[in-house]
Design goal:
This protein is an alpha+beta fold and 91 residues long. It has a single domain, classed as 2-Layer Sandwich (YaeB-like fold). The protein has a five-stranded mixed β-sheet with strand order 1-5-4-3-2, sandwiched between helices. A hairpin with a 2-residue loop joins strand 4 and strand 5. The protein is globular and about 30 Å long. 20% of the residues are buried.
Length: 91
């Protein structure tokens, strides 16, 4: 099973979402630890090695490095906003 590394952006976001949504996201993160490439995950073109997974109204952006599941960003599903934040994060 992979170790989870929540980046500061992700950690800050999780602290702000309602408890119900935080639990849903925690469940998805737990599932990703066991299987980091589920059928519903999608590789983000132009942002290799990033993947994304939908969780209700949110998207989890992640990548795997050795035995670590890195979560640089969790954001609401507004496509424009999340992709701009990814670009800014990777600069």
């Amino acid at each position: 099973m992979l170790k989870i590394n929540l980046w500061p952006e992700s950690r800050n976001f999780l602290e702000k979402v309602p408890q119900k949504h935080r639990k849903q996201l925690a469940t998805k993160l737990s599932l990703l630890r066991k299987n980091p490439f589920p059928v519903r995950s999608k590789k983000l073109e132009g942002f290799e090695p990033l993947y994304r997974l939908r969780s209700g109204d949110y998207r989890i952006v992640y990548f795997v490095s050795k035995d670590i599941l890195n979560i640089p960003l969790i954001e609401s599903r507004n496509d424009d906003k999340i992709y701009r934040r990814i670009r800014n994060l990777l600069r």
